[in-house]
Amino acid sequence: ADVLELVLPAGAFEVSAGGFDPTSMDPHVDGAVYRWSETPSECEVLLAIPGLRGQPAACLAIEFAVTTLSATAFRRIVWSCILRGRAVPKSAVFVVKENEERVPLIELSVRKANKALWGIGENSIL
Fold it and tell me: How many CA atoms lie within 13 A of 125 on its CB side?
């Protein structure tokens, strides 16, 4: 029997992960989730917070620190989470849009400082 050996060069592929997690630790808040995906080098998030319904998309911003992410409305923090790994804050890019229900949708991406899968973060409403 012939044996086929395949040697892949380092960096030939990346493992990725993704999923949905609640935006609130409160079990009484229904349907509030964010979608995330990640590779060892970057993570992307689509975040919708129903409590911000009706807020203009232009008033929202994202603030990144090495281990935290915060969403602000009119420069006040309205949602935050603690990341499970370290990010490169200067690499963060975000866009805010409104969905058909007038809930702002925040799309963001950030490079990771470490090459590992995080599972994104633990959220908390401030």
Answer: 12
CA dihedral 51, 121, 34, 21 (to 10 degrees): -100
pTM (predicted TM-score): 0.74
The whole-angstrom separation of Cα 14 and Cα 37 is: 13
CA neighbor of 107 nearest in space, from 24, 21, 44, 43:
44
Q: Which helix (H) or strand (E) holds 14?
A: none
Closest CA to 50 of 83, 98, 94: 98
pLDDT tens digits along 17-69: 888 777 666 667 666 677 888 888 999 989 888 888 888 989 999 898 998 88
